[in-house]
Amino acid sequence: MLAAALVLLWQGVSASGLLPVFLLPSPVRVVLAFVGDFPLLMRHLGVTLLEAACGLALSVAAAFVLATLMDNSVFLRQSVTPVLLFTQTIPTVAIAPLLVLWMGYGAAPKITLIFLTCFFPMTIGLLGGFSQADVDAIRLLQSMGAGRRQIYRYIKLPSAMPAFASGLKISTTYSIVGAVISEWLGGTAGLGVYMTRVRKSYSFDKMFAVILLVSALSVALVTLTTRLARRLMPWDRSSHSSS
């Protein structure tokens, strides 16, 4: 209902003539622009999704490795945590040009930026989940002769997965935004490149179309992640209540 009301308000403001059509195209013009450029948008979308998937997959793997190492080493946790926090104080738009300068206009700087953007929420979530594992249950397993791997498998990983899932939801949206921002600064394909081209040609109806596409894609990925978490973690009540 709220979305329908916003679209009606948008259409009303656009039809009233308060703003020039090139500044605020009507929803009808945006839909027509989306349909007209649909094949081109899908080609650029495929590039953006591939970059986002690569960066997100690398960040997931690195988050599990680093969080596990930090959970087992007080020195590593105390020395690496400030560095992780510092990396999050650097604006994405500030570091993206440097990555392009160092790595060129290929996929490498884009995947690196997505990795840096997505890595932090999942690492911190996993580390917090590990630290909140049931101490009594760990001691019980240790008294039964369980090793470190079994403790992670039966106690720590199930305890950390809800926090990891929350970080993953945030990171999926970050991955799309990070890919688009990095494509804005250079490249030959991707939704960011498409946005740059339509902006230079003052085709703001196409600009609105790609913005709505990015928003819809982010919502779809968060919904998919939520449903996947609910399927993989039937014991977690928060994943059920959030869906």
Task: Give an account of the 3D structure.
The chain is mainly alpha-helical and 243 residues long. 83% of the residues lie in helices and 0% in strands. The chain has helices at 2-16, 27-36, 38-72, 74-87, 92-103, 107-131, 135-143, 148-184, 191-200, 204-232, 237-242. Helix 3 (38-72) packs across helix 6 (107-131).
Uncertain stretches of 5 or more adjacent residues:
none
In total, the number of strands is 0
**In terms of structural class, how would the helical and strand content be classed?**
mainly alpha
- Biggest β-sheet description: none
Task: Name the quaternary structure.
Answer: single chain
SSE arrangement, N to C: HHHHHHHHHHH
Shape: elongated
Query: Please, how many helices?
Result: 11
Give the proportion of residues in helices: over 70%
Percent strand: under 5%
Summary keywords:
243 residues, mainly alpha, 11 helices, 0% strand, elongated
List the helices and strands and how they pair.
Blueprint: H1 2-16, H2 27-36, H3 38-72, H4 74-87, H5 92-103, H6 107-131, H7 135-143, H8 148-184, H9 191-200, H10 204-232, H11 237-242
Helix pairs in contact: 2-10, 3-4, 3-6, 3-8, 3-9, 5-6, 6-8, 7-8, 8-9, 8-10, 9-10
Task: Please outline what is shown here.
The protein is mainly alpha-helical and 243 residues long.
